[in-house]
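Appendix B. Chain record.
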Amino acid sequence: MTTDTWMDVVTVPGRLDPAVLERAAAPLQVVVEPAARERVSACEAFALASIVDGRPVYGATTGFGPMVGYAGREDPVDQCGGLLDHLSVGQGRDLPPEVVRATMLVRLSSLSHGRSGVSLRVLDALGAALGTTFAPAVPTLGSLGASGDLCPLAHLTRALQGQGHAYVEGQRRPAAPALRQAGLVPLELTGRDALALVNGTSLTVAAAGLALAKLRRAWSTAIDLSALMVDLLGASAEFAHPRLLDALGHPGAVLAGQALRGRLAGLRPSGTRGLQEPYSIRCTPQLLGAVHTSIEHADSVIGADLNGVSDNPLFFPDQELVVHGGNFFGQPVAFAADLLSMVAIQLGNLAERQLDLLVDPHRNGGLQPMLSVEPGRQHGVQGVQLAATAILTNMRRQAMPASIQSLPTNGHNQDIVPLGTQAAIAALEHAESLRWLHGSLAVALRQAGHLSSRQPTAAACAELLDRLAAVVAPIDPDRGLHEDVRAAADLLDQLAGGGAR
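Structure tokens predicted for this chain:
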């Protein structure tokens, strides 16, 4: 594995969190603790001894799934191959390489606990791949999140063996030459290696964790944009009064109110607004407070999954136990991911309504319709609003919870499934769409700042408008704004603690 001094370093089985998952998009040096390596070796030895002694071990001495009542293949290498062959059936577009690399990190962390009976060469192969730009090409569709992410992880594993396809330096190519280009050697599997690689919810929790990281930043962005809108319109900050929110009794709303008041410190209202603002301003502490509470709940669930062991069976050498069960059943993260989708869509609803308020001359303090410099001859952010409506509608169309769509399959071996992988991938896609909505609102706020005689009076809002003005020029005359929306989204992501795309 590459050990260049510039490379980020992660130790497993240390504490994983969504921020660490994002770091896996770039080459990462993964260090397996010496004590963990000893546990992994001891567990593998116990697992192999159990098999030799004739102890029933699912997937090693038996067939897979509903074939558990039949004997497996005698050659362990052949048994590994048979598992991967029948599971390499995924369809659809490839997952983004950064999602697959985060998945590899999660799987490596789970295996490093020493409960899966896997060989050290598997951990070393995953670590070596993460030390390069290598990312297996993994189809989006195939996992039910019920017996682990079987199909996606089978494609991931095959790519590590030099089969299928992979990305290296951002280019998709056959896996064998991709491995050579990255300086990696094909992974050889035996014993429980193949089953341990595929029999966990690592893709589900990786995608959910990445979505969570984005939505944490989106919360901060929504605070920033809401505050800037209040200041540009000359509205009062009374809606965020601490006594009001303390009386509500929801800690999330109290926290959101504190954040809004911090951004609005120094605000001087114009005195020309009505007594009560529309809900897209007045109710932001309550909405964003609920978002924060939901994100915190999802974080607790996803954090537990990131740092647990999802496999079957598990091995406990110190007690000579082989325990069969269902730790690969991804229901907790399925629920959490669907909750994150709801969060993303309601944040999108807020951004779209705030954008609508800004372009309406009856509600925006008398600014020109569509924030146009010359209405009729120019159209300002009219196209941006149309695209934002399309983006939000697409999000809402796809908002059906995945975690309740159970469908029996696999000869009724998997008679109930959580579909957490689909829930997590949907949450990640919604979080990305939300970035575009926030970028759209930011472009409109920048244009409002250009047109309005009123400039922000709160220091934080003035600074944000200046930062936006540095990346988005005034819309005069009209121009295509798709790149401006993306530039604004990238800036907002950076300001909230993330990185540009």
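Further analysis of this model is presented in Appendix C.
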